[in-house]
Amino acid sequence: MAGLKPLKAIPNGAFAYVTKVNTAGLTRRRLLDLGLVPGTRVEVVRRSPMGDPIAVKIRGAIIALRAEESGLVMVRE
Amino acid sequence: MGSTRKEPVIALAGNPNTGKSTLFNALTGLRQHTGNWPGKTVLQTKGSYIYKGRKYTLVDLPGTYSLLANSLEEQVARDFICFGGPDATIVVVDATCLERNLNLALQITEITAKVVVCVNLIDEARRKKLKIDREKLSCLLGVPVVTTAARGGEGLPQLLNLVDQVVKGEIRPQPRLVQYDPEVETAVAKLVPQVKAVLGDLVNARWLSLRLLEGDLTLIEAVEKLTGKNKHVPCGWC
Amino acid sequence: MEFSTPLRRLVATAEEVAGRNQEKIRDSIVKSIYLTAENIAHATACPKVEKSIDWDRKIDDILTSPVWGFPIMFAMLAVVFWVTITGANYPSEVLATGLFWLEDRLTDLFTAMQAPGWLHGLLVCGVYRSLAWVVSVMLPPMAIFFPLFTLLEDAGYLPRIAFNLDCFFKKAGTHGKQALTMCMGFGCNAAGVIACRIIESPRERLIATLTNNFVPCNGRFPTLIALATIFVGGSVALSLRSMVATLTVTGLVVFGIAVTLFVSWLLAKTLLKGELSLFALELPPYRIPKVGQVIVRSVFDRTLFVLARAVLVAAPAGGIIWLFANIPVGEMSLLATFAGWLDPFARHLGLDGFILLAFILGLPANEIVLPILIMAYVSGGALMELDSLAALRHLLVDQHGWTWLTALCTMIFSLCHWPCGTTLFTIRREQRSWRWTIIAAVIPTVIGCGVCLLLNYLVRGLGLI
Ligand SMILES: Nc1nc2c(ncn2[C@@H]2O[C@H](COP(=O)(O)OP(=O)(O)OP(=O)(O)O)[C@@H](O)[C@H]2O)c(=O)[nH]1
Ligand SMILES: [Mg+2]
């Protein structure tokens, strides 16, 4: 699929749509519970001073995610 | 066992940082620590208040985003709502972020119908020029809804009144449940009768069936403890 | 866990119905709930006027900016300490003067009643005087620090600190929420240890628990403030005094953070190896704190509560220490004898026997370390009025040979030594393990001794003193 990227690759201020979560088990469930279900519009709001974690606006709340997690979430711009 | 209990028990559930402890303090006069960061309350606390001459016990639960039991807090909150036998559950939601908060509210109304939704931080919503249609929300959720600003005390009398009515059975909320995909609904339909046969009215059969389908063993453990020893389900931390 | 037969059958049936699709079913359940929530939210909340200024973002642009994020954090810390130090100065003096005036009146009373000397000593020089010290040294800084800190907390700054610092914790192999537990540690390490529950992974929670003590709690930073004001600040012009003292205390706190990261990293590499757990931290919107409410609550609920606890420990401790300081064993008092035993070792650390003894006797509560030390010193020499920091300086420097190095080593040792009794008790309760409780006491002690030893020999070796 064209344009599929990990969430962590999205620049500040840009938004994208979640297409899938590339992990299984507990981590997957936790990420989904945060609202990262396919189809969700997410916006990368900012990066922390050292570049990681990133702050993502997910369903109304701003949530900081480390590269480990935001790399698992695939999005389409 | 708990059957001789006269004081109604009210659980306070909700997402982190929605003002549960602030509400708890406002109602009970206690001094739980509050602060603008998620996860401030880690200990389940009890307090009480008196409304219309009747004493109510209020339990401040840790905030969670979900009740699907992927973390200890979630299990604690879930087990209390499900097995702790609260006479009503107040779900505190953040008016400025309804969508995320309703996710939890919908999960709670799946477990129990005795719910009052408290849309807190209404002052913040006003400040952000956000309007909330309380009546429509109540209608769509199928449970009573009240808007509050716990820090200023706004809306608390209405909240207490609604809770009182739910406890007495004067209001019988009929939650509108989430409709799942057809495959899930079919599977649930298959399981519900069996769950009812085994557990009767102990737990909401539809909800338990859903959890069984996704293989949530922590819940079965909790049920086992309840039926096996018929004892108080430990809240995990106490 | 073993399930009873009917439950087991239920589980088996569910597995059969779900087939191999458990994960898919779960995904679909979560999705359906969120979609329903989304629909309801859209139907009931009027979309906000999107054009209005998003202040939260603007504030975050500054507070978490790559350029300003860190400087502002340290500036914030420094400002809080500066306000605390300068603000506490005057009330401290007033309180001390008042309380020691009262001590004189008590003495008069005892004389008038012809009470025996030991009774006066025990009650006035022991119990009352340590109370007076605890109150006058502790109360003003706490009454200023707590409201300031609570304002930051209520405004929503703490999660931003965690957001800024997370990369360091990640490198150390721990959870970013450890920063939040450290913030709680400023109030009280026992509270910090309890706050560790917000970290879910047992491994990362344990690391946060074991290192929480490197944040100076309110029982210790008044000591740090007093020493910094007397020694470091005392050596410069009056106008710069509180500024220099502030920088010293801030520097010590930053040092404590560095030690925390280092020890966390060490633990994550050795005793507590493991995977990083999921990190997801909500950055809540800023909210304007209710200043009046914050001040009232933090003064009454926190300051007075903590003070009451300190007083409860300080009163009996004061009496006991006075007895120790005045019961002769041969030539010397019991206290001096113990101090004499500790002295050779303590000298290596840049301390002296009395200082080390005060830390040991201060185990029940860090608040009483300084009063114990003063009492131990005073009972040895001429009795004097200790109604100001200047008098304290005189006692320490002129009578007991303190140098800036002694003060620095004492401050570092205060930052890095065994946690107080309450904290140890809390660690034991939270971790349900004596082993980890002991380790929690050993780690900071070893670090503290190591750093003091090194510093002492380095400074002396270089001939800086
Ligand atoms: N403006 C406004 N602020 C509120 C209101 N209720 C609570 N707050 C603030 O919101 C923040 C969070 O409140 P808490 O009561 O600690 O939230 P909680 O739900 O107990 O949070 P957790 O314990 O983390 O789950 C605090 O800073 C409160 O002062 C309100 O009605 N209006
Ligand atoms: Mg709370």
Can you describe this structure in just a few lines?
The complex is a heterotrimer of chains A (77), B (238) and C (465). Chain A is α+β, with helices and mostly antiparallel strands.
Would you write up a description of this structure?
- The complex is a heterotrimer of chains A (77), B (238) and C (465).
- Chain A is of the alpha+beta class and 77 residues long.
- Chain A has a single domain (4-76), classed as SH3 type barrels.
- In chain A, 17% of the residues lie in helices and 40% in strands.
- In chain A, a hairpin with a 6-residue loop joins β3 and β4.
- The radius of gyration of chain A is 11 Å and the shape is globular.
- The N and C termini of chain A lie close together (12 Å).
- In chain A, 51% of the residues are buried.
- The mean pLDDT of chain A is 92.
- Helix content of chain B is 42%, strand content 15%.
- Chain B folds into 2 domains: 9-168, P-loop containing nucleotide triphosphate hydrolases (Rossmann fold), CATH 3.40.50.300; 182-227, no CATH class.
- Residues 230-238 of chain B have low confidence and may be disordered.
- In chain B, α7 crosses α8 (205-213).
- Chain B is an alpha/beta fold and 238 residues long.
- In chain B, a hairpin with a 2-residue loop joins β2 (45-51) and β3 (54-60).
- Chain B has helices at residues 20-28, 72-83, 98-111, 122-127, 134-141, 156-168, 182-199, 205-213, 217-228, and strands at 9-14, 45-51, 54-60, 88-94, 115-120, 145-147.
- With 465 residues, chain C is an all-alpha fold.
- Chain C has one domain.
- Helices cover 74% and strands 2% of the residues of chain C.
- Chain C has helices at residues 5-18, 22-44, 55-63, 69-112, 117-155, 158-172, 178-187, 189-195, 202-211, 221-232, 241-269, 291-326, 334-348, 353-361, 369-380, 389-399, 404-415, 421-431, 434-461, and strands spanning 280-282, 328-329, 332-333.
- In chain C, strands 2-3 form a two-stranded antiparallel sheet.
- In chain C, 50% of the residues are buried.
- Chains in contact: A-B, A-C, B-C.
- β5 of chain A pairs antiparallel with β1 of chain C, so a sheet runs across the interface.
- Bound molecules: guanosine-5'-triphosphate and magnesium ion.
- Residues 14, 16-22, 34-36, 38-41, 63, 120-121, 123-124, 149-151 of chain B line the site of guanosine-5'-triphosphate.
